[in-house]
Design a protein that fits this description.
This protein is 34% helix and 20% strand. It has helices at residues 32-36, 58-76, 86-100, and strands spanning 2-7, 13-18, 28-30, 41-44, 47-50. Strand 4 (41-44) and strand 5 (47-50) form a beta hairpin. Helix 2 (58-76) packs antiparallel against helix 3 (86-100). It is elongated and about 70 Å long.
């Protein structure tokens, strides 16, 4: 049994197993570990190399985090009629500014309040 990667027409690299011993055309033999963790590898000019997915853009990170943090504030303060602490308001506004594009200077997400 042989394990392999093959680049598909879409450009995606797919793993495969060959029981006959003859690899399909264009396939590159890989180890069982590489096969079992195929999401961590890709092909570059016929060579198996480690794959690191591109980082999610800061704006998208902020959008996702804003939703979860707003829910946290609602569940821990608003639902009880409590005022939202000012550090949380500052934090949520900073996330919102990144998420809606008014803050284009930030390169990292703001740090969440400790409380």
């Amino acid at each position: 049994m042989k394990y392999y990667f093959v680049k598909l027409e879409s450009g995606i690299v797919g793993p495969g197993v060959c029981l006959s011993g003859d690899l399909p055309a264009g396939a590159i033999e890989c180890s069982q570990e590489q096969y079992e963790n195929s999401g961590n590898y890709t092909l570059d000019n016929g060579v198996i190399v480690a794959y690191t997915p591109p980082a999610m853009p800061l704006k998208l990170q902020a959008e996702a985090l804003l939703k979860t943090q707003q829910a946290y504030v609602m569940q821990n303060y608003a639902i009880y009629g409590d005022d939202t602490p000012s550090d949380w308001l500052v934090y949520l506004k900073a996330l919102r500014a990144i998420a809606n594009g008014t803050d284009t200077a930030s390169t990292v997400l703001p740090t969440a309040p400790s409380s």
